[in-house]
Amino acid sequence: MSEPIKVSVKPEGINIEYKKSTNSLPKDFWKTYSAFANTSGGLVVLGISEKSNNFYLEGISEDDITKILKELHTSLNNKEKVNYNMIDDSHITIYTLHDRKVIEININEAPLSKKPICLNGDYRQTFIRSNDSDRKATDDELRSMIRNSKDDLDSEVLDGFHLDDLNGASIEDYRKVLIGNNENSPYIGMDIEQLLVELGAMKKDRQDGGKYKITLGGLLFFGKYNSITDAFPHFHLDYFNRSGANDRWID
User: Mind listing the domains of the chain with CATH numbers?
Assistant: First the structure.
């Protein structure tokens, strides 16, 4: 490979990172992958190095591009390397600069339900992007991501589940709790499906023609026991009312 060429490029920052990459994927690529996915996304450019705030075009040969991309895709689909794949071919661009090839990899921010994006199956290997560097997430940041992922998961829509998978008595008892002593409550006489939408127990699936479907949280909140175990075979209720009633809102 020829001598590096000094180039003028956009400086590194919270959403852009340059890495020298001659014949393999840089080992520190994965820290940046985790950091971008856990923060607000970003662009990794392989084939450009940085030294003392100056940037140098190294370039990557055709054979090495093939090798690097194979290594990238193999690792992305290895759960022991990274817990979620954020990249497909549409996120990768190869272009020529001064007769040398570089690889751009666009990494989107991960959905809340998939965070934290960690390395080597170890939550302690979770990274955050801070200015132009990658740092390990603090315990508080890690707990926040895990908590938010559970909240987001509750709103996930479920295929193959319908109103008859929910316990009508539980829904009506919860309606009474919502109404309380308010004689003008909008929940009085509200259609049951509309009520479930209002509560977030049903949600529009924009990937399926805008149909309203039961959410995971709605099933766990109002679902019949057998329906819940259909979705979660290992589900176990901490408390089960054996008095004959199926109320969940007495206490």
Answer: 5-139 (3.30.950.30), 163-231 (no CATH)
